[in-house]
Amino acid sequence: MNPSHRIQFGLIDHVEGPVTRPSSAVIYEVNRIVRLADEVGIEYAWFSEHHSHAHHGHLPAPLLLALALASETRSIRLGTAIICLNLHHPLDIAEQVATADLLMNRRLAPGFGSGSSPAEFGMFGLDVTLLEERRERFNESLQMVLAAWCGQVEESSGPYFPSTAHSPLPVAGASLHSRSWLAVNSSGTAEIAGRLNFNVLFSHLRTPEQYCEYTSIYHSAGGSGVIATNRPVYVGETEDAAWAQAEPALRTLWRRFRLEGKIPDGTPEPDDPKVLARHPINFVVGDAESVARQLADLHRTAPYSLMNAEVNWPGLSQNAIHNCVRRLGGEVRRHLDSLLASGPPP
Questions:
Q1: Beta bridge partners of 79
Q2: Biggest CA-to-CA distance, the chain
Q3: Residue of 144, 154, 73 whose CA lies nearest to 108
Q4: pLDDT of residue 2
Q5: Are 115 and 84 within 8 A, CB to CB?
Q6: pLDDT of residue 12
Q7: What is the pLDDT of residue 122?
């Protein structure tokens, strides 16, 4: 495979932990995972925004963690997946991101999304708006961010963010827009991402068929950036060991999804962990060769250039997570390169 066309790898972390656990301990574990990912050649690490322990998250400011880790790593790109743009004023976010990118020597990969939980909207004194209104607000926010990065915001009387004409500082680096991403979880956000030519971040909650639908809309709207898919992943030394080690995490996640309504209430919990791993969890489990094969199958159905793996789950020891990261950066990558270079199976 041409090295310029090989699949890149990233890690996404929601920086989660029990409410009783010190945030410093939760963040320190993520720090160790990212430093290891940098050592084994994984290209990206992303951090999510959550407030007041919504979604079990301990990190309300992912941009700060990306900035801190820039001084502790060598080459890994550090990003936000995502900044919940509708919780903030876009000019404030535009200035913070542009400043952080300068301090990080252009290694920032900012990702933005329109959504958040109803509880988080309430914390900021915001109503949970209808989908169309939320999308319009998101679109206006993004256009203001891009204008700020170009160094000139025109006078605006927009319905959400009226502004006087001014020249924001710092002016963003010319490549910042091309290194920025949108979370795409609907046809509407796929159209916005394409029209404004952001790169695409998919959620692991979506099916390959949805990935294909959104990618088609994105390209039809003019998008030409990178497509990043997402899956929870656990890579064990052997197939049997992988399933045995991952089963506690699968059961914890399945029960959480049922509690959150992603799995219908009253659905009996499957005995077979391989059934637990199916949609909507979409958890990829196996030894290095098996995981690579599953990722290759996903690529053939819904092509992507960047595989973002979520590896840090309750029920997995830190040693198991670290070994998983090493295998992703080594054996899985080698197997995946070989499988994609050889074409589809006969």
A1: 46, 109
A2: 62
A3: 73
A4: 46
A5: yes
A6: 98
A7: 66
Question: Could you tell me what percent of the chain has a pLDDT over 70?
Answer: 94
**Domains of the chain, with CATH numbers?**
3-341 (3.20.20.30)
Question: Within the chain, how many helices (H) and strands (E) appear?
Answer: 12, 11
Beta bridge partners of 284: 233
Q: Check the CA dihedral 233-238-244-245 and report its sign.
A: negative
Contact, 295 vs 203, CB < 8 A?
no
Helix (H) or strand (E) holding 83: strand 83-84
Asked whether the beta carbons of 38 and 9 are under 8 A apart, the reply is no
Alpha helix locations (H) across 150-287? 187-196, 208-220, 239-260, 273-276
For the stretch 171-189, pLDDT in tens is 999 999 999 999 999 999 9
152 forms bridges with which residues in the sheet? Answer: none
**CB count in 10 Å sphere of residue 263:** 17
H/E/C letters for each residue in 183-219? Answer: ECCCHHHHHHHHHHCCEEECCCCCCHHHHHHHHHHHH
More confident residue, 317 or 345: 317
* pTM of the full structure: 0.94
Cα 268 to the center of its chain, rounded Å: 30
- DSSP tag of 57: B
In sequence order, the β-bridge partners of residue 310 are 232
Give residue-wise pLDDT tens across range 226-275. Answer: 999 999 999 999 999 999 999 999 999 999 999 999 999 999 999 999 99
pLDDT score for 345 = 65
In this structure, what are the phi and psi dihedrals at residue 67, rounded to the nearest 5 degrees? -65, -45
In angstroms, rounded to a whole number, what is the distance separating the alpha carbons of residues 49 and 55?
10
